[in-house]
Design goal:
This protein has about 325 residues and is α/β, with parallel strands linked by helices. The protein has ten helices and nine strands. It has a nine-stranded mixed beta sheet with strand order 1-2-4-3-5-6-7-8-9, sandwiched between helices. Strand 5, helix 6 and strand 6 form a beta-alpha-beta unit. Helix 9 crosses helix 10.
Length: about 325
């Protein structure tokens, strides 16, 4: 299987027999969100303390397709950013889900990632390892297809990482991005400085304290204290989208998959964060044209959906 430039989901499904993975029932007939909410075709290997160390001495954890590089496939890279005082294993369900769709996911165990330094550094670490002929990743990664996803302080961090990555990070998904009021010690981010790549903002409607959708005073007076202000600040030349998951709170993304093992507050679990975020990564890093159309004008993501609100995008129809 070679790297598919278009309709990567169809190519992955065609490869299921080669990979020895059963097809997902009803996958081809599903909506983009429903399809990408299901586990992908790759079995997943996960390893804690995979490598050492980031700038603060923290180890890296990793999730990756067990059958790396099957039939010449080169895997995109996702670097993950933890929330404050959180650990990558609290996001295991989500990160394992990404890996099942063909991504190699690396996460620093550092829980103070707002600067983005160690989120970007994780990419450098992984690509350096992949340059080693003795590494399991050697010649199996797509260094030109790198994304960053993070939660809370890590959401701030992924935007900063993209800003300072020298265009290496092509897309970012900040989840429950904190209002600027919550950023400390120089850990704020400025979306107005983004000049390349793409951004998909995701928050929960119940997360009104840390990541509210709207703000009472205009950002010109108090800065960006809402997702709408952050979205509006991203230049119109940058492909961007934003959506709010109905009823979900700050830590639903930590669901395993429900709230039993998630931090407080959590309402339902990680389910809502699986479909469209994975589809966004597939569109941006795997070339899935069907997933890309879902976020474009008139696309599925923008249609009325009881599970989502505030859907907005500036992406033209491909």
């Amino acid at each position: 299987m070679t790297r598919c430039a278009v309709l990567i989901r169809s190519c992955l499904l065609a490869a299921l027999m080669v990979l020895g993975v059963p097809a997902i029932a009803g996958h081809a007939e599903s909506t983009v969100e429903a399809a990408y909410s299901q586990p992908g075709p790759w079995a997943v290997t996960a390893q804690r303390d995979f490598a050492c160390c980031d700038s603060k001495g923290s180890a890296y954890d990793i999730w990756y397709p067990a059958n790396l590089g099957a039939n010449g496939f080169r895997h995109p890279v996702i670097t993950w950013g933890d929330g404050t005082n959180a650990h990558p294993n609290q996001y295991d369900y989500l990160l394992r889900h990404f890996a099942s769709w063909g991504f190699v996911v690396i996460a620093t165990e550092n829980s103070a990632t707002g600067s983005g330094v160690d989120i970007a550094g994780a990419v450098d670490k992984l690509l350096a390892l992949a340059a080693d002929p003795s590494s399991v990743f050697h010649d199996r990664l797509d260094a030109d297809a790198v994304g960053a996803v993070g939660h809370s302080q890590g959401a701030t961090g992924v935007l900063n990482a993209m800003l300072n990555s020298g265009s290496r990070i092509k897309t970012a998904i900040p989840i429950e991005l904190p209002a600027q009021f919550w950023c400390f010690n120089g850990g704020c981010t400025d979306p107005s400085r983004i000049s390349g790549g793409s951004v998909f903002f995701v928050n929960g409607s119940a997360d009104t304290v840390i990541s509210p959708s709207e703000q009472a005073l205009p950002p010109q007076m108090v800065g960006p204290q809402s997702l709408r202000a952050f979205y509006d600040a991203v230049p119109t030349s940058v492909p961007k989208a934003w959506g709010t998951l109905a009823r979900l709170d700050h830590n639903d993304v930590q669901g395993q998959p429900d709230c039993a093992s998630a931090g407080f507050p959590c309402t339902a679990g990680v389910y809502g964060y699986l479909g469209y975020p994975t589809a966004w990564l597939a569109a941006r890093l795997l070339g899935d044209a069907t997933a890309a159309r879902a976020f474009a004008a008139g696309g599925e993501f923008l249609a009325p959906n009881p599970a989502w609100g505030n859907q907005i995008s500036d992406i033209a129809t491909p």
